[in-house]
## 1
Amino acid sequence: MAAQQFGDSLKEKFGDRVLAVDAAEPDQLRVEIVPESLVEVADYLYNDQGCRFVINGGTDRRERNGKFLITHFFAQDEEKLYIAVHAEVDGDDPRIDSITPTIPGANWSEREARDMVGVVPEGHPDPRRLVLADDWPEDLYPLRTDVEHGVKPPSCAGVAMPLVEPPEGASVVPIGPYFPVLEEPEYFRIFVEGETVVGADYRGFYNHRGVEKLGCSVLTYNQIPFIAERICGICGFVHSTSYCQAVEQAAGIEVPDRAEYIRTIVLELERVHSHMLWLGIAGHIIGFDTVLMQTWRMREPLMWLCERITGNRKTYGMNLVGGVRRDIEPEVYGDITDVLAKIEKEWRALCDAIPGDPTLMARLKGTGELPEEKARELAAVGPTARGSGIAIDVRVDHPYAAYDRVEVKKCVYDSCDNVARVLVRLDETLEAINIIRQALAEIPDGPIMAEIDEEIPPGRQAMSAVEAPRGEVFHWLLTGEENRPERWRVRAPTYANLQSVPTMVTGDTLADVPIDIGSFDPCFSCTDRMEVTDVKSGIIRVYTQDEMLALRESKQPAR
Amino acid sequence: MGFFKNLCNKAFPKSLWVYHTNTGACNGCDIEVIDVLTPYYDVERFGVKLVGSPRHADVLLVCGPVTRQVVPALKRLYEAVPDPKLVIAIGSCASGGGIWFDSYNIVGGADTILPVDYYIPGCPPRPEAILHGIAVALGLAEKQVAREHIKQLVDRNESIPIEDEVGADEVVPGDDVPEELLTPK
């Protein structure tokens, strides 16, 4: 009962500042604290207890008790524990102390909570807008319950987010929003002195589609997997799995064994194709298109296989609350092993070739350095963290689906550079193939869907995490009425990893920046998914078009 | 100018250079677009090439619903593509907003901002469908479906029946494209 012990120790340490402790599940702890002691509690969890910051989320509960609920999520990987720290803040003047000075990785999520529900993080070092469009009005917060999901305030031209000024003497190289090697629109401003990068600023969330708002206001429990899959077109299955697990946990639904194995198999198939895809793109970024063509050639039979299993090349449409929609027929087992055997053979050849390729090594070695300490501070996850020597992997630390019944090895490298992140993914692909074989050998017969005859009661909570190809996907769910969640919070891995960009690129040459950004397999659509409302971002400067042009001219790098 | 215009018109159906843009997509369509370029589908055999700058492009491929934040950048992007140009909307989202159609941060499908010449629906469209769409644009293949006007459901919660289609129009591949561009030379 790790959760119970942990809860007791918190209660002992903070006394009556801890209002309630709920440790009903052995791997999930929910604590309610008084908002004033948030920083202290966060500091204790992060620095003394070695917890990892996951995300925070804001919920508008003014209709129920006149307050906003701010929840910070932490993970204690050694104890296999997720911790939710709830604090309720005043509904009329919502403010809460910022924990970013203590935990730098909380930077974005606090800005997001301000954007989306309007809870101001006091003492935040960078209180600019994060998620909402530049021309979104200041006082309209999309995640509040009194705001319609389809509200479309009129747009206005010539508004821009205040940008960070480059250090003295540095020039700015803008990358994006449309840049050939980045598939998705994101805007980076890279500060350079000569060829050397000295810093970076970022404006993203061009792909923000308001997923969380739709989930909490118009969709029903069984419609959400459909939209959850479309948070990301590459690793869609991880989002629907994570969401379904959260609902199942909250409602106490037992998923049949066979469905858990099928989920495991599809998750690993997705990891294999995603890592192959990524290696190709990484090759393309550094101008080695042979890698792109070869890995994508190797990947294609896998896509056909996915289509055979799930009915869609993108592994869409498989998950439902309570199980999976389609069974894997025994006659497909043979095809799965055949395709994997072929991929494994070619992939092993690739694994031998890459570390010995002088061109690749020259570009990857020593670039994009992310020291272990920084990676922890910025809450990096997945291959990015494992390439910096941090041995975290949700499949081992917080097993879900059938991962407690198969053997999973963590692939960790500690050189902290782009090479490490490549090697982690090379190994993980083989490991994933191994997991699929184990799962296929052990998959039990039986039903694939649980019988659900009762309504899901409101007011229940659950946290669910899944190891996506890019790192930990985290979903938090608070069940509500009308057959839909009251709040559904999603944290995609790129959200955590992207905050490491300034650290990674600093000190490299400008030519290494694209591969640095590419090295953690950014998936901006995941990151930008949700809805956030904006809050007053301290100072928002409004530029006229002429001023913008003048600014742009003055910031152009010297020709 | 007449000379250059004729030259462009002549060259256009032979080799399309495309610039691919994501306006808020989930990546599903984007990776299928890349898939079309890789060995199994190999769209380069039709003279189609992916270019790194809109200024080199004949065709703008748009994936994803158009988000509010992306609108100014998308407009600039469109202006940067030299005339004559085609816009192809790939996927359900770019074709009409898809499942995001009424979300607060979504403006709509690509045609709310740009004149779209061809639609390749699907979620995501299969690589074969993208190939077919490009072949139609090049005049190599015939269009296989008729145009239909249907009204989008306004309220997700109430099952309002989809209104009867307002008659299937004549099969016209893109209204705004000059006829001479559509005829293979």
## 2
Amino acid sequence: MKIDLTDTTASKINKALVQGRRAIGTPAVGMVLTMVIVTDEENAYDAIKAAEEASHEHPSRTLVVIKRHARTPRDRQSSRLDAEVRVGADAGTGETVILRTYGEVSDHADSVVLPLLLPDAPVVVWWPVDAPEVPSKDPLGALAQRRITDLYAVEDPLETLQARVRAYAPGDTDLAWTRLTPWRSMLAAALDQARARIVSAAVEAEADNPAAELLARWLEARLHVRVDRVVTAGPVVTAVRLGTENGEIVIDRPEGPLATLTLPGQPSRTLALKVRATSELIAEELRRLDADEMYAIALNGEATEETPAHV
Amino acid sequence: MSEGIEGIPQTAEQETKGTKEDKEARAAQEAAGVEQTGVSGAAEAAPATDRADTDFVNPLRDPQDRRLPRIAGPSGLVIFGVTGDLSRKKLMPAVYDLANRGLLPPGFSLVGFARRDWEDQDFAQVVHDAVREHARTPFREEVWQQLAEGMRFIPGDFDDDTAFKQLRSAVEELDASRGTSGNYAFYLSVPPKFFPKVVQQLKKHKLASAPEGSWRRAVIEKPFGHDLRSAEELNAIVHDVFDPEQVFRIDHYLGKETVQNLLALRFANQMFEPIWNRSYVDHVQITMAEDIGIGGRAGYYDGIGAARDVIQNHLLQLMALTAMEEPAAFDAASLLTEKLKVLKAVRLPQGLGQGTVRGQYAAAWQGGTKVRGYLEEDGIDQSSTTDTYAAVRLQVENRRWAGVPFYLRTGKRLGRRVTEIAVVFQRAPHSPFDSTATEELGSNAIVIRVQPDEGMTVRFGSKVPGTSMEIRDVTMDFAYGESFTESSPEAYERLILDVLLGDANLFPRHQEVEESWKILDPIEQYWATHGRPAQYTSGSWGPEEADEMLARDGRSWRRP
């Protein structure tokens, strides 16, 4: 069910939510969190879709804040809030409110969002694009326990990464880090099997890949060895090599979802290492809502330098 | 000097720990009546490898890093009776789902053993079909490829020595080619009469004893015997070959999220535990109802019956988890201690005729179809006294529960398929409202819905909107499907992963199995010598005698 509200306020939106819930016959809801998505009109569709898919695992109230840019000076004068309330089948398993702000109210979006948060439930803010310089100091970011940014969606990822290091506050997290979880868990599992001290390490990836940089920093922080960064044609991270005294542990994913794992003294075997969809990344992010200490450790690790592949 | 002092106690402590473990292992073996030869080598090797294991700390793992899932170590799973229903519908799909969620180690291997003339590829095709049809997660080619590389099939009978030799060489080949490191779980998905044969063969071909630094585990399914004596025999047979710690008994109810949540509900919250006792609880009802009949399982079911099939394992386990005290820690040993305490405190009703009911379903229309009665099922003797419905009233004689009856019931061809634990509370000691206002008010209850629609319901009185004061029952629902994940993992996924990880929290130990038989045996003996099962209409909620049993106590069954 959809309810459109033009030139509205937060309290009218709240009324529409109750009305919508009554109409579909489920007055009691079991939503576990409020998800705030701050985006522009262009990226809204994909972000809402990902959030709705993730809501199957984490039923949530999704508030989408879209800041509209007026074209004429006259429009810029007037301030207006439009809302679209979706409940039931139109909103995954939770409720979705799409807020479009025009003019001055765009700078005070938090005043609209605050009354619409679920009581007591945790708040997550996700910027699919255009994340603020300091997420935790942003008016919307300050409302949230968890702030999700995406280094894949910025112009100069490595430079932005440095800015994130400076701006880090507990609760910050980035989808570039989330994308690494399958790699990291396979590396940990490989080391469980190899049970050997690591003496060298290398991460191979396309140029300027922020996930590869985070992976290298994490490895360096945990293994206390220098991590080489080798530039390959990609896509994204293509291989990780960990050197032991008896040979190399290699996870190699030249292309596609199938990778090869090689352990010293053992035959190589294949493993599935898929590039995951955004909805899966968001679902993973929402599984834990406390500060991700390991992300902080990786973020604050030594910066590494890219070297071209020695072919 | 300080270095020396610091060094010594540490080693001493390690050694005492080692010998203590040795002692425990030996004591456990002696308790099970196991001879020291054969198994002792493996048991002694175990603590030593534990120590070697702790030497290596994986720097990539950190307790703070909670994104990294619990992945099983290098290992393989050998399924006996791999062509069976359980294997195709539950085990193989669960293995695939685990792989798809990235929880199986690279190189994980699956070995099937059955009397079929199959090659590895034929087996892979069977698994493929089973996975396609029954897996919970979407089919992904790359995951399948990763799994398929480690699949082997051994054709043969259980007394066929060549087949077991083949199995042994397959296991060794997998160690070399897939790096399974000698870690194997043997899943005995076969009727219990084959258990002795299979475990003896495993022992004979040295498959059951783990090489140093690895493990060998046995996984067995119910029934764990049909009375105390047969259960003890069965345990002795299995423990003769496998260390008791390495035997995992599957009770798939314990793998369900709601059952685990029962412990979270009770011990992680403050608001439930204070009223979880005789001062507030009136009685507890534990129900496991099925809407199906015995189907084609006449051979298995007749002579066993509902009480042995369900009450002995599932219902008594659920009861133990509901009634037990807080465990010292959430680990297998502490849980065992508490569950055993409760099971030992269980007392049977004074007159078994008054405190137990059994029944057989009779022909009727059920849910729109005409169904046959139990005695008319194919392969069932007209004079069979097997119970398809059983209800018992048990008491737990301890400070917390004295005087609170636990009603356990189970049956086939009941109203609908449902499993639930209902804790029913006493009425308010005093009501300021007049009796007309509270006429429609029942007892408060907390209901744990185990299946289907996993979740929890709280039932309490609320004022009916309007002018006059009228109070009626309402329910408040927490549904897993709604509040967390739409697709919570299947019980078998969780349990197989736990076996591979060696986490025994959710598996009943042999002591519990034996203790449960001690509760059920007198009831079965009484039934064998007194009367016949009552007949109940298929599709109803059981025989009238069961309603009368509760009516005598001034209570009534919930309609689940």
